[in-house]
Design brief:
It catalyses: (R)-pantoate + NADP(+) = 2-dehydropantoate + NADPH + H(+). The chain contains 15 helices and twelve strands. β7, α5 and β8 form a beta-alpha-beta unit. The protein starts with a helix and ends in a 5-residue tail after the last helix. It binds NADP nicotinamide-adenine-dinucleotide phosphate (NAP). The site of NADP nicotinamide-adenine-dinucleotide phosphate has 24 residues, from α2 and α4.
Length: 355
């Protein structure tokens, strides 16, 4: 990986002075609004937010603020918010921050309104996003992986709850490099990479827990202190690590520990796990996965881009993925509302590896 500082020096904010870039944040929700609040601090950027009418009203009434666990705070008002995508035609770069299932419905509009040379930076979690977009869009598509959690604290206020550098696919686009330099300047560090696949695959390892949390139906902290749930997560991770190994991809570690150690850590007795993983356990007692939020809101989840991707890749590499397959099935049940999902211990019994 290259450092963010290098991006700043090579193609950064100072060398592009004088040029005013128009940035479109498409799908202004938690991630889009959080990042957008930073970009609004830079007078050389014209930041346009695209999203739902409800969000437009919320930001008009409250302004937009980004706060962080490390006490950084940025405020922006007024923000330019559009509930139609027509004004995308003015944008020089797009940060695409809708959830993965919303990408396909959005493609027609992107094709209609985006100038063909404008780079699109897809910020979704999951596997296959870039490939899916490039099948339909002629625009350059880049990927960026957001390692931290953003939650909405109150109307108009988006809060970064955890640490981590955004991992961003390296490119030669001046507008993209300019906004990376703005993030770095405002202490939201961006790491550039030429191996975005490794970054995607590493993030997926952590996101495999989203489904388990949604199925458990309890806060993340409580879920991770349950030995059965941790055993299932360890098994789901092992399935993915085996695929990565066969695909010869070394997933980027995001926890400070080598990825191969995570299943071992998860298998420790709860008393030991609690002590060793204290820093990794979410601070907020009530925090849950966004997949749980989606189920409650009766929305389609990102399951097919997360555990579903493990199942697809397992088929490709002829490796078994019984745990991820069962997790996908349970989330499908929750999405359809037609059948109760199996409990965590029932899933564990089905895979025949009860702790
Ligand atoms: N939040 C996090 O902590 C976090 C961290 C890392 C990565 N990510 C990833 O970042 C992506 C975005 O997550 P998020 O939490 O920011 O999602 P989010 O809060 O749901 O934001 C997406 C926004 O886009 C809107 N939207 C969807 N389709 C639209 C359309 N056609 N036109 C206008 N607006 C549209 C959504 O509205 P509706 O809800 O009404 O559809 C929602 O307000 C996901 O892939 C997620 O996995 C999130």
């Amino acid at each position: 990986m290259l450092s963010g500082q290098q991006a700043q020096d090579d193609a950064g904010r100072y060398s592009t002075a004088g040029q005013r870039y128009c940035i479109g944040i498409v799908g202004a929700g938690s991630v889009g609004c959080y990042l957008g609040a930073y970009l609004c601090q830079d007078s050389a950027l014209d930041v346009k937010f695209f999203g739902r009418e409800t969000m437009a009203l919320e930001l008009a009434a409250n302004g937009l603020s980004a706060t962080s666990f490390d006490h950084q705070a940025y405020f922006a008002q007024p923000v330019a918010f559009y509930s139609s995508l027509n004004s995308l035609i003015e944008c020089d770069v797009v940060l695409l921050t809708v959830k993965a299932p919303a990408l396909v419905p959005m493609l027609t509009q992107l094709k209609r309104f985006l100038r063909p040379e404008v780079p699109v930076v897809a910020m979704q979690n999951g596997i296959g996003i870039g490939e899916m977009l490039t099948q339909d869009l002629t625009n350059p598509v880049l990927r960026a992986i957001v390692p931290f959690n953003v939650i909405k604290n109150r109307a108009g206020q988006f809060h970064r709850a955890t640490a981590g550098n955004i991992v961003w696919q390296q490119s030669q686009h001046a507008a993209v490099n300019y906004l990376i330099s703005v993030f770095n300047h405002l202490q939201l560090p961006v790491q550039l990479t030429t191996d975005i696949t490794a970054a995607e695959y590493g993030k997926l390892l952590l996101n495999l827990n989203n489904a388990l949390n949604a199925i458990s139906n309890v806060p993340l902290k409580q879920q991770l202190l349950d030995a059965d749930s941790r055993m299932l997560l360890a098994l789901a991770m092992q399935e993915w690590l085996a695929i990565c190994s066969k695909a010869k991809i070394r997933p980027v570690p995001y926890t400070g520990l080598p990825n191969a150690m995570l299943p071992w850590l998860l298998r420790l007795p709860t008393i030991l796990f609690r002590r060793i993983a204290a820093k990794m356990l979410p601070m907020d007692e009530q925090a849950r996965s966004s997949m749980w939020d989606d189920i409650q809101a009766k929305k389609r989840t990102e399951i097919m881009f997360l555990n579903g991707a493990v199942v697809r890749m397992g088929q490709l590499y002829q490796l078994p993925t019984p745990v991820n397959t069962l997790l996908v099935e349970q989330i499908k049940r929750l999405e359809s509302g037609e059948a109760e999902p199996l409990s965590i211990s029932e899933i564990l019994q089905q895979v025949g590896r009860h702790s």
